[in-house]
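Anyone up for a design puzzle?
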């Protein structure tokens, strides 16, 4: 029996683990290091977030992405130099080796409640008993496909998260559905691999981000810089997640849905504009297989129809958090978790309605704001949740956990700040 098990080894799981280790909590962490970034993001892509907003977080705050790049001789700037996926993955692996060398590279397959907490089963046949479980598994389970995808076999239609190496599409025609950053990253990766990509976007135009450039004092006052970009709204999102948490459910859900909508990064523009066919203001009205290929029926804003024939369809149509889509939670457990629009309804300390079960990362966005969809949200998360799970006294000794609130067998520690 360990105090806490962290499921997931991306930016949130690693950052929380580093904080729990510093606080002396008995915990284990399991997952593939930066696995989602390695397996579910296009090769050759760059992060939308600037360098200063792409760090993982350990208590000293010293091992930033900038510090890692300086150690390795990698070009870096707080703003203006895009961070490649490969550099970010290597940084995450170095962070894990430095702070969490005991991490277990194994995949959780089932989490069940026990008299004393939880029992987590793994694909390798092993088990871990823990009083608490923190789910930091990212968005892999939440990929969202459009309705027409059900009309096509899986070999001809997939979600963008199913790919990282696009070599198999060389010389083939591929339709990319969507107009956001994922769609343009996929289109750019397909082009680099010699595929013929056609982007089909519902929006009237593709709105690329603009590079920050030099900002005047007036710019900095009118729109202060944050990890989400410039603007006072972003200041509130990044600095006041607890204020956001106290807002009504419907308000929070709407803000998360609308804030920072689809906007490809500025540095992708040159890779796709003029090189990739982009059909804007267009929706897919139907799809069918014909002689091993896909025939898409499209409709534009004027109602005119057209047919697009491709070898494969990649849907870069985003993610929708839904508790019941976590494969390691059985139906009874998923049904016992209170949700808002499918996303878990979390306490002030990221706890679900099941005592001792926590969700962090993008799954927490509806409770704490849009910053949770980005690596930068791991700082607030790691600090707050580590204080809750492992409060430390003045002399550095871990205090005894208070009595459980939810019964004699389940621990539910309460932090000093409530």
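Challenge accepted. My sequence:
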């Amino acid at each position: 029996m360990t105090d806490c098990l962290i499921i997931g080894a991306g930016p949130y799981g690693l950052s929380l683990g580093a904080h729990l280790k510093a606080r002396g909590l008995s915990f284990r962490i399991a997952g593939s290091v930066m696995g989602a970034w390695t397996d579910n993001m296009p090769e050759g892509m760059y992060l939308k977030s600037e360098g200063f907003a792409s760090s993982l977080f350990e208590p000293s705050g010293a091992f930033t992405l900038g510090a890692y790049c300086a150690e390795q001789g990698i070009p870096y700037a707080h703003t203006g130099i895009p961070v490649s996926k490969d550099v970010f993955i290597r940084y995450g692996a170095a962070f894990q080796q430095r702070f969490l060398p005991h991490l277990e590279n194994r995949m959780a397959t089932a989490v069940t409640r026990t008299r004393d907490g939880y029992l987590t089963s793994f694909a390798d046949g092993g088990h871990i008993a823990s009083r608490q479980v923190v789910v930091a598994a990212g968005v892999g389970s939440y990929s969202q496909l459009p309705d027409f995808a059900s009309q096509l076999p899986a070999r001809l239609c997939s979600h963008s998260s199913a790919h990282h190496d696009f070599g198999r599409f060389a010389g083939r025609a591929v339709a990319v559905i969507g107009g956001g950053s994922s769609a343009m990253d996929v289109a750019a990766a397909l082009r680099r691999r010699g595929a013929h990509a056609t982007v089909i976007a519902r929006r009237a135009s593709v709105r690329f981000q603009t590079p920050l450039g030099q900002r005047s004092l007036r710019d900095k006052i009118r729109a202060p810089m944050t990890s989400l970009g410039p603007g006072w709204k972003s200041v509130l999102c990044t600095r006041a997640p607890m204020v956001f948490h106290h807002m009504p459910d419907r308000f929070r859900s709407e803000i998360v849905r609308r804030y920072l909508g689809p906007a490809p990064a500025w540095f992708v523009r040159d890779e796709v504009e003029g090189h990739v066919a982009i059909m804007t203001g267009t929706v897919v009205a139907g799809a069918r297989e014909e002689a091993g290929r896909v025939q898409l029926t499209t409709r534009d804003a004027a109602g005119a129809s057209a047919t697009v024939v491709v070898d494969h369809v990649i849907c870069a149509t985003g993610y929708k958090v839904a508790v019941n889509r976590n494969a390691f939670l059985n139906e009874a457990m998923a049904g016992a978790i209170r949700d808002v629009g499918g996303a878990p309804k979390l306490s002030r300390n990221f706890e679900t309605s099941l005592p001792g079960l926590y969700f962090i990362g993008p799954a927490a966005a509806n409770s704490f704001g849009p910053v949770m969809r980005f690596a930068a949200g791991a700082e607030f998360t790691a600090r707050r949740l580590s204080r809750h799970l492992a409060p430390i006294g003045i002399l550095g000794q871990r205090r005894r956990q208070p009595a459980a609130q939810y019964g004699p067998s389940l621990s539910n520690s309460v932090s000093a700040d409530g």
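A detail worth pointing out: The chain has two domains: 2-142+319-389, 147-208+263-315.
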